[in-house]
Amino acid sequence: MERIGVFVCHCGINISSMVDVESIVERVRELDGVVEAKSYKYMCSDRGAQIIKKSIEEKGIDGAVIACCSPRMHEPTFRGVAEDGGMNPFTVEIANIREQCSWAHDSRERSTEKAMKLVMSSVAKARLLEPLERGRTPVIPNALVIGGGIAGIQASLDLANEGFRVYLVEKDPSIGGRMAQLDKTFPTLDCSSCILTPKMMEVYHHPNIDLMTYSEVLSIEGSIGDYRVKVRRKPRYVDVDRCTGCGDCVTACRMRDRIPDEFNMGLSNRSAIYIQFPQAIPLKAVMDSETCLFHRFGKCGDGPLCVEACEAEAIDFEQKEEVAELNVGAIVVATGYDLLDPASLHEYGYSRSKNVITTLELERLISSSGPTKGEVRLPSSGERPRSVTMIMCVGSRDETQCSWCCRIGCMTALKQVILLRENLGEEVEINILYTDIRSFGKGYEEFYRNVRAENTNFFRGRPSEVRIRNEDIRIDIFDTITNKLFEIRTDMVVLVPAVVPRADSGEFARMMNLSRSGDGFLLEAHLKLKPMDTFVNGIFIAGCCQGPKDITDTVAQASGAASRAAGILSKKELENDPLIAVVDADLCSGCRICISLCPYSAIEPVVETMAGEEVVHAEINEVLCQGCGACVAACPSGAINQMGFKDNQILAMIGVLNDCSDAGGLK
Amino acid sequence: MSEYDPNIIAFLCNWCAYAGADLAGTSRLKYPSNVKSIRIMCSGRVDPVFILEALREGADGILVAGCHPGDCHYQSGNYKTSRKIRLLRRLLRELNMDPERVRFEHISASEGQKFADVVTDFVNELKVMGPNPLKGECQ
Ligand code: FES
To answer: Cβ B33–A101 below 8 Å, yes or no?
Structure first.
């Protein structure tokens, strides 16, 4: 730009105590292209903004250098001020003389000297900056929600109620997720299905929600405002329009009671054709082709009994997998969690005794729709347990397994104490082996106190081994409160396993282009300030796919993610950041190096006919380009440049920082 | 020329290294003022030409800093640049320029201390190394 204004901020005394602001103002006046130089106590204040706007109006400045705090802090502020004042916002350059100068050094003389250099290099860049326009992309007002647990259900309902079309994709035959497997929930002891089922029904009947169960996301292309997603719909071999969910096929199936039931954690058996659970939504049968005799051998007795049993004639062995293509503007990922398989921790005896189970298995035993119809019985013998011992933090808070806290284990175990007493009577002995009790949520501490007041034995420590014997189970526990070693004899052990990322979360993250944190959960854009955002614009995360959390926090985050997504979907168009890479087709030799380097597949070769000859050159999709500059640095012909970070702009800064005589640009 | 005081130009990626340098300041960690940074969005933007040009014009040291492996905001810019710099350092040896004048570091947004330490260490090393032999050609 040719008429540059330089505005130096005192930042109270944050800058001016270590940098001689006035001497900088005096010196920059001498620089070529600088027509205005001012300082003010707080440049980012309203008054500061007025100073800048006045210079735009009166001095006609067309570029500005603001010497102040980090651009990570106030670059957007000053771009806004410039725009308000009628100047192009992208001809503003920030010189960071606070964080990287006055705060970091303790000699006033040297800080001033460095600040001067920084300002001069910014002026050198500002001279070469160009006004830029923001591109616009239209927004497709549809949302995709991946995962039909409570997080996905909540997010879908919120978005659908805002009036957006929602595609809810769930890999299982029914929505409901982990919460559907629970009996009651802490700390209110609400029956889980009583509070969940109405929401599931609402999803099913909502005119704005397209429910896609038994489906998986295959691939994703595009970017914020306009994603194209392929979804694989697995065949159910049941015509859902005809199926009434009566369950006659399930009872008729030759494989009845012969296949471990995943929903009941393998504690009971199902048929090859089954309904996932009594409250399933949609309440439709699904045929598991891997165990169905007709699918495996082409023959099922004299003919499949399910076909015979189904009055609605809904069974359809010919069904094929389908791939649906969706077009959405924003995505909420709510893929949930897995529990650590305790078999990997040999000392807990999980794989050595049927009577060592997990909290989720106990939920199924307690549930009236579970394998024992709600009677808690020893899986080995079917007898009533007289003593139950719960072991917390199995794999959690353990450097060799999962370093993190599962955040639900303590409360789950405490809740199960109450449910066990309801189920087995007051006389059952209950032992709790804990590390610390973490009862952090609203009403949790009170809940804990109630349980503690009851007749429950608390031992603080981790058992070294669970010894399985014929007649009972023995556990040695050193209680660190009484400093005593105890031997517990018990009938049943309930392990509270760590919450871990979904087994396929790595693959999934790669497909979605999302990052994961060190623990394997999906990574949020900022742990505190952007907990539902990801580094991919337009994709949000909710629930346990981001990290362990209870239902309360999951629902809160899901609503948050939905409202973040709604913020995008409610706009007709989005403004794109113009600080992206641009190809000069005349210089491009068509070598395609940039294409292989781009992490966003934003570059494509285009073929043109020039003077009768076919020439290839690269073209950058301005919506997909995120402006990293990798292609710019790699282009051997110098045909690509990044707006706002052009080669000549950066080289000019280098020149000044190196003290080259011509570069400082004195008038 | 006055007493030798090394001049370091730092290319810092916006998301990690630049934020780390900001944090050093916010935490009031002190480090030598010899370093002056140029903010780029990703370390992947660093064209080896920038470094060669800076050295030709007399910079005593070049620091390129990006996110930790796996953390690059744009997925892989830091890997690309670490490879570029490795090659460049080999080239510098051929050109009779001490490759130690060019450093690549991973500095996260939470590593203010590391930024301060890297700069302090680099300045000390450059003091031992002496001025860039090309210094003065343009000054
Ligand atoms: S964004 Fe930091 S290295 Fe790429």
So the answer is: yes
Q: Which of A215, A179, A171, A173 minimizes the C-alpha distance to A197?
A: A179
Q: Between residues A640 and A610, which one has the greater pLDDT? A: A640
- Residue tagged 């992309």 (tokens): A137
Q: Quote the radius of gyration of chain A (alpha carbons, Å).
A: 32
CA of A354 relative to ligand 1 center, distance in Å: 50
* Measured distance CA(A554)–CA(A551) in Å, rounded: 5
CATH 3.50.50.60 fits A341-500, yes or no: yes
Q: Where are the alpha helices (DSSP H) in A243-380?
A: 248-252, 293-297, 305-309, 359-366
| Angstrom distance (rounded) from CA A578 to CA A640 | 14
Q: Which fold has domain A581-641?
A: Alpha-Beta Plaits (3.30.70)
B64 Cα to chain A: minimum distance (Å): 13
Q: Which residues does a 6 A CB cutoff place in the pocket of ligand 1?
A: B 13, 15-16, 42-44, 66-67, 72-74, 77-78
Given this model, what pLDDT does residue A660 score? 61
Taking the centre of ligand 1 as the mean of its atom positions, its distance from the CA of residue B65, in whole angstroms, is 8
Q: What gap in Å lies between CA A245 and CA A267, rounded to an integer? A: 23
pLDDT single digits (tens) A538-574: 999 999 999 999 999 999 999 999 999 999 999 999 9
H or E segment and range at residue A88: none
Q: Domain residues of chain B, as ranges?
A: 8-129
Look at A72 and B74 and tell me if their CB atoms are within 8 Å. Answer: no
**pTM for the model:** 0.77
Q: A562 by DSSP, 3-state: which?
A: helix
The mean per-residue pLDDT over the stretch A385-391 comes to 97
* Structure token digits, residue A20: 């001689």
**CATH fold for domain B8-129:** Rossmann fold (3.40.50)
Closest in B19, B45, B59 to A628, CB measured: B45
Interface with A, mutate which of B18, B23, B35, B36 (most A CBs under 10 A): B36
Considering only CB atoms, which chain A residues are within 8 Å of B39? Answer: 71, 96
Consecutive H or E run containing A93: strand A92-96
For residue A600, the chain B residue with the least C-alpha distance is: B74
* Residue-level pLDDT at B138: 56
